[in-house]
Amino acid sequence: MARKSKSETEQIKTLTPEAETMKKAIAGKMFRHFAREVNQATKEQMFKACALVVRDLITARIAKHNGAKNNADKQVHYLSLEFLLGRSLTKNAFNLGVYDDMKAALEDLGYDISDIEETEPDAGLGNGGLGRLAACYLDSLTTLAIPATGYSICYQLGMFKQKIFEGQQIELPDSWMSVGDVWLIPAMDEIEEVRFGGRIEERWENERIIINHIDYTTVQAIPMDMHIAGYGTEHINTLRLWNAKSPKVLEMSLFSRGEYMRAVEQNAMAEVISSILYPEDNHYEGKLLRLRQQYFFVSATVQSIVRKHKARHGTLSNFHLKHAIHINDTHPTLVIPELLRIMIDEEHMAWDQAWTIVSRTVAYTNHTVLAEALECWPQSMFEMLLPRVWQIICECNDRYLDILRSHYPGDHSRHETMAIVWDGQVRMANLSVYASSAVNGVSQLHSKILQESIFAPEFELWPRKFYNVTNGVDHRRWLTQINPRLHNLICELTGDGYLKHPNELQKLMRYANRNDVQTQISDIKRANKADFSNWLRKEQGVLIDPDTVFDVQVKRLHEYKRQLLNVLHIISLYQQLTENPDMDFLPRTFLIGAKAASGYHIAKRIIQLVNSLANEIDNDERVKGKLKLVFLENYRVSMAEKLIPASEVSEQISLAGKEASGTGNMKFMLNGAITIGTLDGANVEMAEVLGLNNIFIFGLTTSMVEQTRRDGYNPLQYYDRNSELKAAVDKLTFGFSDGKSYQDIANSLLIGHMPDSYMLLADFENYRLRHIDLAAAYADREQWNRMAIVNTAQAGVFAADRAIGQYARHIWNI
After folding, report:
1. Is the pLDDT of residue 10 over 50?
2. Which parts of 644-797 fold into alpha helices (H)?
3. How far is CA 630 from CA 109, 306, 778, in A?
4. Distance from C-alpha of 32 to C-alpha of 38, rounded to nearest angstrom
5. Is 667 a known active-site residue?
6. CA angle 245, 247, 252 (to 5 degrees)
7. CA 272 to chain centre
8. Is 36 designated active site?
9. How confident is the model at residue 68 (pLDDT cuts 50, 70, 90)?
10. What pLDDT is recorded for position 664?
């Protein structure tokens, strides 16, 4: 590994006592764990040595304060199929207050901390906003000293590593564990057993039914704990990740007979549960594996919580007073029947008592209005894989239907809509709403849609059960750590109080009209753009000009997020420039990053389209220096940390009523990027706090979308009337310089069943005109820099600390 020369090292100032202690600790870890001197270490070994030092500091706090968490009146258990943590070394060191000491120690040892940081892989425990939100919330729970544990699966591979080959997405294994496992501490004395399959026998004994589950297959759930340090607190929380193993590593009798594959088959079938995030589910085996994953992590989690509770209290009758179990979207819904199963079958509670406890313990956050994301499972799959859970779900359904028949006699349509089991399908969202003490959406608009549309019958029945908690982001990570230049300016102007009290960012408003501060904001953005340009050149071999506008859209590829609308606008700009190369044009670099689910064909075609367009623009001398499009390969948390501080325009352009909230929009706002977006998700609340003169809103509103559908939406009307739109769509059919045509995408916008489902053509013209307004605002540097300051100043309300405070007060009753 490259180290600093001796002359460089000699110029380093004398270390503080804390940095000297850190230096000795790193060197000690290196020798004890790798039998190497520091000057012989690889980058991976140096990273692991630093991580182990940080881990020791966290463990020391756990030992010092362990009793406080155990004695807490109530603990939060946050269940999520994703926790998209990103890298942990910098985050933990910052929160512990030792980052500067580590940086100085490494520098004295001849290493650059940025090189060590780059060695750490992103933990492959999530996919997008859902997992990133869970990670932000775990940080805030810890910082606010709320006793909490996160639970998920210890995926051996992340979703996938994206590679672009000939313009197309290729999915490669995301092997993060070989280096990233340094943070994981196995708790081998807390292994749980999860049962699949088999059959249920019932018998009467002492005037009650005894349930006997037989002929099942057992999978061991091994807890791998990752400890989370909070900022400015001694408090430590834990992320518990369950790793799947078979109780039998090897079937010796089969192995002895030479049947080697069969001998390890049982172990392989168990381990596949924790092998990969979101296996493709467009076939039966994929669906079955997803259901196995969900029950595996839920069952292990509930057993662990119950076991510890009984050891402390001796009874489950007070369980709801000591625990708040939160299910992050519908993936952990099986916590409800599993907790009922344990209380009824193992603790011999009566149904009514068990139901009262469970329904006062569990709360549910909905994250979507898309019908396909409101999970439903085939009844036959439950009967085969989870026979006892199936029986309990049926009992829940029967009792729920009794309530509905009592409240709405004869209203069979309502019964069908609200039922948990209907027509051979198990509806997870309906079970979650029925059994939870609280149900919340994640933006004001989203919660309104839930109450008035998605769960309107349930809201009518239980109006006091529904809440809104708008999403929030970890502002310490997504501003302080990733944008140190902006952080230093904020501290210079207003102090560092915003770190614990994010609303103090509003103090920046008093500087919004000061020319000297506007100039500093502009200089910071230019420096960040230069940094990202240099990084992208090294990472992807792509050259971009930091003196052009950086217009960014990065998020999971889904049609409703409308990356295609962005592409049509870029095609239109390109066509204008080629027709009139001397036109007055604001030079722009469009940056698009997204992963498409491996089985999502149209999404993968849109990625290919982006790359075809980027290639044509890149090879057209007429637009050089004026227009550039780059697809950011393998977009991930660590890339976002470099990109967001450099971004100037944030594209948040989903169809109104489709995005639950968004968190990327908040991160860009926090770093002074200006949003162009629809009134969708949290954009609505951003517009409220910013005022419409500091954000570029366009497009149909939710009510307008609904009315347009009722009136009979015809995208051909927009296509025929708008020559620029027609030319952009026709370009898809005519093709690009690489010989590729995208007529299938054009057809999806114009013909067939429900063409242009997400109304790109209806919003195109307003989107185009707002981009013209945006360009004019950018040309007025004083106006633009003032807008950037206002965006950062008003972003405090979107901090995760605020959101967790609301959950604690209104939903968890902590």
Report:
1. no
2. 664-670, 683-690, 702-711, 715-721, 723-734, 743-750, 760-779, 781-793
3. 38, 51, 21
4. 11
5. yes
6. 115
7. 23
8. no
9. low
10. 96
The reported pTM is 0.95
206 backbone φψ class: left, alpha, beta (φ>0; ψ -120 to 50):
left
Task: Tell me the mean pLDDT in the region 98-103.
Answer: 97
Q: Which of 667, 740, 768, 786 is catalytic?
A: 667
Q: Which of 320, 326, 556, 636 is catalytic?
A: 556
Q: Are 134 and 140 in contact (CB under 8 A)?
A: no
Residue 134: what are its φ and ψ, rounded to 5°?
Answer: -60, -40
Exactly one of 90, 365, 494, 663 is catalytic; which is it?
663
Q: Does the pLDDT of residue 296 top 80, yes or no?
A: yes
CB of 296 closer than 8 Å to CB of 221: yes
Confirm whether 663 is a catalytic residue: yes
Does residue 802 have an active-site annotation? no
Active site residue 480: no
Closest CA to 267 of 278, 255, 280: 255
Whether residue 45 contacts residue 30, with contact meaning beta carbons closer than 8 Å, is answered with yes
Catalytic residue of the set 555, 558, 562, 740:
555
Residue 24 has pLDDT above 90, yes or no: yes
Q: Which two tokens stand for residue 387?
A: 């026979």
The CA distance from 721 to 724, in Å, is 9
Predicted local distance difference test score (pLDDT) of residue 2: 45
Which position among 23, 161, 341, 367 bears the catalytic label? 367
- Which amino acid is residue 242, in one-letter code? W
Please tell me which residue in 331, 561, 588, 740 is annotated as part of the active site: 561
